[in-house]
Amino acid sequence: MGKRVGIEVSIAAADAVKMADVDVVAAYPITPQTHIVEHLSELVANGELDAEFIPVESEHSAMSVCCGSSAIGARTFTCTSSQGLALMNEIVFIAASLRLPIVMILANRSLSGPLSIWNDHTDVMSVRDCGWIQVFTETGQEVFDHVMWAFRVAESQKVSLPVIVNMDGFILTHVIEPIEFWDEETVKQYLPDFKPLNVLDPEKPTSVGAFGMPDIYTEAKMAQNDALLKSKPEILKAWKELGDLTGRYYKPVETYKTDDAETIFVTMGSIGETVAMAVDELREQDKSAGLIKLRLWRPFPFDELREAAKGAKQLIIIDRAISYGGPGGPVASEIRSIFYGEDNMPAVTNFICGLAGRDVTPDDYIAMFDKSQKMLAGKVRQEDYVFYGVRE
Amino acid sequence: MAKKVESEGALTWKDLEVGCVVRDPGNASQYKTGDWRSMRPVVDKSKCIQCGVCYIFCPDMAIHKTEEGYFEADLYYCKGCGICAQECFTGCISMVPEEE
Questions:
Q1: B25 and A99 in contact by Cβ < 8 A?
Q2: How many angstroms separate the CA atoms of A276 and B79, rounded?
Q3: What residues does A177 pair with on adjacent strands?
Q4: How many Å lie between the alpha carbon of A91 and the closest alpha carbon of chain B?
C-alpha cells in the first residue's frame, strides 16, 4: 500500500482519478466540486496525466462529451454538483441507457432555490431513477477508494453501466483528512485496462442512441433494469477485492451497534459519523440505539437492509432531501415500503435535516431519538415526517 | 438493435444488444411501420391499368409489382397514408378501414 498523507479530499479525489489513468475528463467547474476539476486540469496541463481535458461550456455538454468519449472506448470521468447535475440531467439518463461506463463524482449540494451552495442530497435525489449505480461515501478515504472501485465496477463487461460516487459538498470536499494513497502496483492489480463491450469504430460502423418505438421501448427498459440489478455481484466482488488489497472492506449496508438495537438510525453519507457519536451517547444512557449507513443506493441492497434491521422495533430515517407534497424524504419512503407487510415490520419515523449544510450535531440526533419515542407512543403515518430544527 | 428476427414484435428483452446498439447498417428494412396504419389500400383489379403511378408516388416504397403485372402494397411497411389512392388515374384503389 501507498503512503498516508494529510490532504484536501477534493485534491485526493482528483489524484485518484489520475492514478486510475483516465483518458478523458470533461467537466465544468461548480461549487463545491471546483477543486477536483481544477486539480485535474492542472495535472493534465503539467503533463502528469496523459488525458484529454475538455473544458466544455456547460454541464449538458460535459455529459454529452462523456457519452461520446466513453462510446469510443476511452476511460471517462466527470464531476459536478447541484445545478450542474440539473443542467446535465437529460444526458445523465441517456448515459445509463446506452450502458456507457462513465464515472462521475457528485459533490452533493442543495438545489436552488433559494440559491444555495451548501450540502444536502437534493441534487442526487433528482436523478434517483437515472439508471446509474449510485454509492455514498462517508470519509475522504472512502472517496479515494471508491474512485478506483467505480471504474472497476463500471467497466466490468458484466456491468457496463455508469457510476455516481456521492461525496458531501464542503463536509468532505473542502476538508483535509488523512488519506492512504494506493501505490501504482495496487492500482494496476485492481483496475484492468478498459475493454468496452461496444466501440464506435469507422471500420465497423454501428449506431448508438437510435430511437425505439413503443414496440421495443418496454423491452429496452426491462433489459436496462436487469443490467442494473445484475451489477450487484460485481459490486460486491469489487469491494471484496478492494478489501483484500487495502484492508478496508466495504459493504452495501454498514452497521454500527445494531445487533441488539431496538431503535436504529438510518443515514447516508458523511453524517454517519456524527450519528455514531450520538449512538454511543445513547448507549451510555442505557438506550438501545444502533446505526445503519446505506452505502449502496442503486441497485438498492434489499436483503442486506432487511438483515441489518432484523429485530429492530423502530427505524429513525434521516433524509437530506424532501419530496414536496409527497411521502416525506425519499430514503424513508423507500425503506418504509420495503418493510411494509413484512413480519415484525419496524415502526418508522422520518426526520428531514441538514438541508443546505445546516449543522446537525450528536445532541440533535439524541433529540430526534427522544422525539421518535414520543411520536411512536401514538400512530405515525407516512406523511408525519418532521422538518427537524425548523424555527416555528 | 438486436439479433435478427422476422419483425421487431418478435423480440424479447433478452434479444436486445447492450445499450440497444445497432450493429448492422441498413436494418431499417426490419422496421415494421405497417402497424401505424388505420386504413389499408385495396385494389379493384377490374379497373387497374397497371400503370404503376401508385408505385411511383408511394413515399415509403412499400408498393411492388406482382408477377401478374399488378401493383400491391406490402402491408408490413404500408402506413396507410392513402397517397396511392389519391394519385391513381382510374380510381381503382380505395382505402378501407382496418377493422373492416
A1: no
A2: 64
A3: A7
A4: 14
Q: Are A208 and B18 in contact (CB < 8 Å)? A: no
Using CA atoms, how far residue A232 sits from A122, A124, A195, A255, in Å, is 25, 20, 20, 19
Q: What is the pLDDT of residue B31?
A: 81
Domain containing residue A129: 4-246
Count: domains in chain A: 2
* Percent residues over pLDDT 70 in chain A: 100
ipTM of this complex: 0.86
B8, A216: Cβ pair inside 8 Å?
Answer: yes
pTM summary value: 0.92
Q: Are both A26 and A112 inside the same structural domain?
A: yes
Contacts A97 to B, Cβ<8 Å? 19-20
**CATH number of the domain bearing residue A84:** 3.40.50.970
The predicted model gives A356-376 an average pLDDT of: 97
What is the CATH classification number for the domain harbouring A278? 3.40.50.920
Asked if residue A239 belongs to a domain, the reply is yes
Residue with the bigger pLDDT between A85 and B27: it is: A85
Q: What mean pLDDT, rounded, does chain A reach?
A: 97
Q: What angle do CA A226, A68, A23 make, to 5 degrees?
A: 100
Of A61, A62, A63, nearest to A98 by C-alpha is A63
Average the pLDDT over A328-347 and give the result.
94
* Helix axes of A82-97 and A214-230: crossing angle, nearest 10 degrees: 110
Say if residue A73 is in the same domain as residue A90. Answer: yes
C-alpha–C-alpha distance, residues A381 and A375, integer Å? 10
Please determine, for residue B100, whether its predicted confidence score (pLDDT) is greater than 80: no
Whole-number Å distance between alpha carbons of A72 and A100: 10
Q: Is residue A368 part of a domain?
A: yes
Same domain, A286 and A204: no
